[in-house]
Design a protein that fits this description.
Blueprint (H helix, E strand, L loop, with lengths): L10 H6 L21 H18 L5 H12 L6 H14 L3
Length: 95
């Protein structure tokens, strides 16, 4: 027994009836454009700053050692040094 059709459809006829098109349609290359909102820019900047903060160590041990050595010197702690330190702390908080 020879089966030449499946459910009334001859797959060979379908392939033979396909016509090829050699005509290439005209293609226009347009310029692509992207715009980024201000909110996205702010989020990207905050993401970058968070990454930098995560990678930065919490304690800078070399700076701590320098300060410890300075504090041990009795001549270092005088009223002008204390006032200058207090002024820097206040300006850091915007006061």
């Amino acid at each position: 027994m020879m089966i030449d059709k499946v459910s009334g459809v001859n797959p060979l006829n379908n392939l033979q009836n396909v016509r090829r098109s050699n005509a290439v349609g005209a293609y226009r290359a347009g310029s692509d454009e992207i715009s980024v909102s201000e909110e996205a820019k702010e989020l990207a900047e905050s993401y970058y700053l968070n990454q930098v903060a995560d990678e930065t160590p919490d304690v800078r041990s070399e700076l701590v050692e320098q300060i410890k050595l300075k504090i041990q010197d009795p001549n270092y702690l005088n009223p002008s040094t204390i006032a200058a330190t207090a002024d820097r702390i206040m300006s850091a908080y915007g006061l």
